[in-house]
Amino acid sequence: MKSLLRRALIVFLCEVMISLPLGDAAALPSNTADTAKLREYLQKPYVELFEIAPTLKFSAAEMDRQRKALEEGKKSCVANFKQHSKQYGKEIDQAQKELKDRTATLSDAQRKQSHCRIQNLQALKSEADVLAGHAIPTAYDNLAAKLEVIEKWPALYRQTREEISSGVYSKRRWGDVKDIGFREIASGQEDDIKRGQEAIEQMKRQGMMPPELQDKAIQDYVNTIAQQIARHSDLKVPLRITLLQSKEINAFALPGGYLFIERGLLEAADDESQLAGVLAHEMAHVTARHSNKLMKRATIASVFYQAAQIAAVVLTGGVAGIGLYYALQYGFYGLGLVLDLKLLGVSREYELEADQLGIQYAWNAGYDPSGFTRFFDKIAMREGYVNGVSWFRTHPPFYQRMVDAQREILFLPQKQDLVMQSSDFEKMKRALKPISEEAKKEEPNKPTLMKREEGCEPPPKLEYEPGQPIEKLCSSGARPASVDRR
Ligand SMILES: [Zn+2]
Q1: How far is the centre of ligand 1, averaged over its atoms, from the C-alpha of 420 (Å)?
Q2: What distance in angstroms lies between residue 281's CA and the mean position of ligand 1's atoms?
């Protein structure tokens, strides 16, 4: 009964909000029939598009129209959520003024209600900021990249085949894949061990390291997979695996071979080759010593001083954006945010190198190398572009990343019986399920550092499911800060 009433209220309040004037921002461009048909293809995974692109017959004009529709869609969708954010900002000011004016006369219940309203408005505003500044542009960039695949891959595929038949492909950077493990990507990997240890100690001291995921069977499984890839890579330092109890879809390697895998990543992966692809990519950052190259002068201490500064701004509510969103969502367990990209060796150029080497390592260990592409795509389209995995924080050119990955896969010598799925992976997923459910139950009770008023009724959820076309999100209106207001 109670939930029915709540739903009725939500519907009512949504109607009220929809009727608010939003200006031009609310008007979304409508798709014509042919752009709609092409748009459907953009919802397909990259691996499928690579297969079917040469058979698709869209005219240059149609491609152009679609590109413009995407550009306009992105612009108006971003404007829509900027408008929401502005509106929430105004409501926050107004609510705070009201609170100040009436503070002497408020009852405890009224005061709590007012605090909850302000808190919820702040959450909605930061969510709108993240969507406008990060998630929506990322989603549209990914669609634009898929359009580019349809447009350019057929010619590039022909070129790739020619490069293979003429033999020039073997002259590419790290084309010596038969010598993996006996070649040197970057000398002195062992010099990074100390740096990695320092970083871990600092993270623990600052309370940034989530607790470990304590499940022997899952630990053993992930360790087995990772060591198997390590043995087939250019890694020259011992690999140490730690599973973290955190819902972030992330894995990261600290210099010197310390690989951290967050629970959210295990939840998001569909098969063993996807997991292998991510682990191999992270190992490649270590073998190529990317962090050492980016942190020539910076010290661990200065990196963590920066992290502490970000934390301070986030906690005082001083910054609107990805940081605040993380703080709200994770109670500051958003490692993807606080870890300096330099420490992880993440930059545009190095991402492409880690993609290439990672694909080689996964393949060499016997995995279907397209696992990496499929996982990347899944994250970009469905799970978590909103959750801003560190992979997306460099605003990488999606098209180049995916196309380079596909070319590398084609350049690798053919292998029989590449592994995509295993019964051990499925067993791991079954063991993970109750752990995830338990963690989800506990998460709302965890005190997040941003939450000052306890027990507030949260605002209604955004009516958008990951995996739906982004246009669905764009047409959603601003939401009320609380379901029981007035
Ligand atoms: Zn990377």
Answers
A1: 22
A2: 6
Question: What are φ and ψ of residue 251, in 5° steps?
Answer: -140, 145
The crossing angle, in degrees rounded to 10, of helices 108-130 and 322-330 is 130
Q: Tell me the CA–centroid distance for residue 391 and ligand 1, in Å.
A: 6
Pick from 474, 241, 235: which is nearest to 361 by CA? Answer: 235
Q: Which of helix, strand or coil describes residue 212?
A: strand
Would you list the domain boundaries of the chain?
2-157+466-474, 172-440
The pairing of beta strand 258-262 with beta strand 240-244:
parallel
Task: Using the mean position of ligand 1's atoms as its centre, give its distance from the Cα of residue 348 in Å.
Answer: 9
pTM assigned to the model: 0.84
Alpha helices in 108-180 (DSSP H): 108-130, 136-166
Q: What phi and psi, each to the nearest 5 degrees, are found at residue 199?
A: -65, -40
Q: Give, to the nearest 10 degrees, the angle between helix 60-102 and helix 33-41.
A: 80
Work out the burial of residue 438: count CB atoms within 10 Å of its CB; fewer than 13 is exposed, 13-18 middle, 19 or more buried: exposed
**Interval between CA 103 and ligand 1 midpoint (Å):** 51
Centroid of ligand 1 to alpha carbon of 285 (angstroms): 7
352 CA → ligand 1 middle, Å:
8
CA of 398 to the centre of ligand 1 (A): 13
Give the H/E segment covering residue 307: helix 300-315
Q: What is the DSSP string of 233-285?
A: SS--S--EEEEE------EEEETTTEEEEEHHHHHH--SHHHHHHHHHHHHHH
In the reported structure, the alpha carbon of residue 408 is separated from the centroid of ligand 1 by a whole-number distance in angstroms of 16
pLDDT digits (tens, 9 = 90+) for 223-269: 999 999 999 999 999 999 999 988 778 888 889 999 999 898 999 99
pLDDT tens for 173-229 read: 999 999 999 999 999 999 999 989 988 998 788 777 788 999 999 999 999 999 999
State the distance from the centre of ligand 1 to the C-alpha of 345, rounded, in angstroms.
7
